[in-house]
Write a structure and sequence with these properties.
Among the domains are: about 70 residues, DNA Methylphosphotriester Repair Domain (3-Layer(aba) Sandwich), CATH 3.40.10; about 50 residues, Arc Repressor Mutant, subunit A (Orthogonal Bundle); about 70 residues, Methylated DNA-protein cysteine methyltransferase domain (Double Stranded RNA Binding Domain), CATH 3.30.160. The protein is elongated. Strand 1 and strand 2 form a beta hairpin. With about 350 residues, the chain is α/β, with parallel strands linked by helices. It is built from 15 helices and ten strands. About 5% of the residues have low confidence. Helix 3 crosses helix 5, helix 6 packs across helix 7 and helix 13 crosses helix 14. Helix content is about 45%, strand content about 15%. Strands 3-1-2-4 form a four-stranded mixed β-sheet. A four-stranded mixed β-sheet has the order 7-6-5-8, with helices on both faces. The chain starts with a helix and ends with a helix. The structure holds zinc ion. Zinc ion binds next to loops.
Length: about 350
């Protein structure tokens, strides 16, 4: 039941909704039809019923002024309200699917929906998703997760504009290493400079770069609230394992990690760790493995936010066409790693 639509109809004394529902007012014990000219009740005192007999079952008495029990509904309104319900519940139902479900023509549905609700079915679905999205954020879900949970697909413009709409970037949501004590070291490798950082729990950064200064800066940017210190001895085992992986002598890089991430990022990263050495999959495939074929862009974002190169093998995710697409540490490095793995 899309109660907001009903509440809107009451506020407008909208006679078109007569017969579609009645509303009971708990402070008076009376129920009315939408067009009733009685004083507007407080929202929290209002209950909606799709049939007057249900209001009576709950003990409400019919308003003498508007005689709600005799109001007749019309099938067109029923269709529109049912459409609103489906749009509010389903993930990305198309107008065609909707009209098929309701057994009316798409053109007719589009027209009557807009006439009664005031916006097109598409716009309505977008509003519902935006509401859900905001609800998810309030619950503490991060932006990427909220987009995913609220059913926004990869084509959504909301996704493109999400930073704008929230006044902050998804990255701001990361905890920036608060309460983390980090040791790091920098070494040479065949792809330039390699920075590896860890906490007592596991590896928290593996980054490639061209010079040490930039790598250090990137580490402190990534973990701006952490305590960071250089410590070569503490990183010896990790460095050895990672360099061996890069050379191809250690194909299972099974290091423990210590990463602050959202549930969605974690799910993507777990899926990436299951891609075997030497193989590649598409973003689409990863999205499907996570059970949401529409989450392609969210998957790509989670890949791009990987902080531990090689350990979480985001380099094994490529475009559907087989093209390499981007890599946080340079597409040339991605190419070199994949070539090495394929040997
Ligand atoms: Zn009334």
């Amino acid at each position: 039941m899309e109660t907001e639509i009903y509440w809107q109809a009451i506020q407008n004394n909208d006679a078109r909704f007569n017969g579609a529902f009645v509303y009971g007012v708990s402070s008076t014990g009376i129920y009315c039809k939408p067009s009733c000219a009685s004083k507007l009740p407080k929202r929290e005192n209002v209950q909606f019923f799709d049939d007057f007999s249900k209001a009576e079952q709950k003990g409400f008495r019919a308003c003498l002024r508007c005689q709600p029990q005799s109001a007749k509904g019309n099938p067109q309104m029923e269709t529109v309200l049912r459409a609103a319900e489906l749009l509010g519940a389903e993930e990305q139902i198309s107008l065609e699917e909707l009209s098929g479900e309701l057994k009316v023509s798409a053109t007719h549905l589009q027209k009557t929906f807009k006439a009664i609700i005031g916006v097109s079915p598409k716009k309505f679905a977008e509003i519902k998703r935006l509401e859900k999205f905001k609800g998810e954020l309030k619950k503490g879900t991060d932006v990427t997760g909220a987009i995913y949970e609220s059913g926004f697909g990869s084509s959504s413009r909301l996704y493109e504009n999400v930073s704008e709409k929230l006044g902050m970037t998804p990255k701001t949501y990361a905890k920036k290493g608060k309460n983390m004590k980090i040791n790091y070291t920098i070494t040479d490798c065949e792809l330039g400079k390699l920075l590896v950082a860890r906490t007592s729990k596991g590896v928290c950064a593996v980054m490639f770069g061209d010079d040490e200064k930039t790598l250090r800066e990137n580490l402190s940017k990534e973990y701006s609230k952490a305590e960071i210190a250089e410590n070569n001895a503490n990183l010896k085992d990790y460095i050895e394992a990672i360099l061996a992986n890069l050379k191809g002598t250690n194909k299972t890089l099974d290091l423990p990690t210590d990463l602050q991430a959202t549930a969605f990022q974690m799910r993507v990263w777990d899926a990436l760790r299951k891609i075997p050495y030497g193989e590649t999959v598409s973003y689409q495939t990863v999205a499907e493995r996570l059970g949401n074929k529409n989450a392609v862009r969210a998957v790509a974002t989670a890949c791009a936010s990987n902080r531990v190169a090689l350990v979480i093998p985001c380099h094994r995710v490529v475009r559907g066409s087989g093209e390499l697409s981007g890599y946080r540490w340079g597409v040339e490095r991605k190419k070199a790693i994949l070539e090495k793995e394929k040997q």
